[in-house]
Amino acid sequence: DRWSVTHVGDVLTPLSDENTLASTDGIPCAMRKLAASGCGRLPVVDHGRLVGIVTRGDIMRNLEIRSDLSP
After folding, report:
1. Residue 46's pLDDT is what?
2. What is the tens place of the pLDDT at every residue in 14-63?
3. Residues in Cβ contact with 34 at an 8 Å cutoff, skipping those fewer than 6 apart
4. What one-character-per-residue DSSP string does 3-67 give?
5. CB contact at 8 A, 20 and 42
6. Integer CA distances (angstroms), 55 to 36, 48, 50, in order
7. Rounded to whole angstroms, how far apart are CA atoms 71 and 41?
8. pLDDT greater than 80 at residue 68
9. What's the DSSP call for residue 1?
């Protein structure tokens, strides 16, 4: 019943080191943060600027491709 008066700011999760990634973070770090956050995606932030979003699926596809390309 409060849908029309609820703002995004009322429901967002503030950014922190625990729930964001840097573009230089490795896959193991991303997987740990995804698991710890309980979210399926995390924002990638560099120098305070949003540069992208990484999902669990993105990482799994990357690992699958690497596995397929391995001898």
Report:
1. 95
2. 999 999 999 999 999 999 999 999 889 999 999 999 999 999 999 999 88
3. 40, 41, 42, 56, 59
4. GGG--HHHHPPPP-TTS-B-TT--HHHHHHHHHHHT-SEEEEEETTEEEEEEEHHHHHHHHHHHH
5. yes
6. 14, 20, 15
7. 30
8. no
9. -
- Residue 52 is predicted with a pLDDT of 97
The answer to whether 44 and 53 have CB atoms below 8 angstroms apart is yes
pTM of the model: 0.77
Helix (H, G, I), strand (E, B) or coil at 70: coil
Token code pair at residue 8:
């995004």
Longest dimension (CA), the chain: 57
Whether the CB-CB separation of 19 and 37 falls below 8 Å is answered with: yes
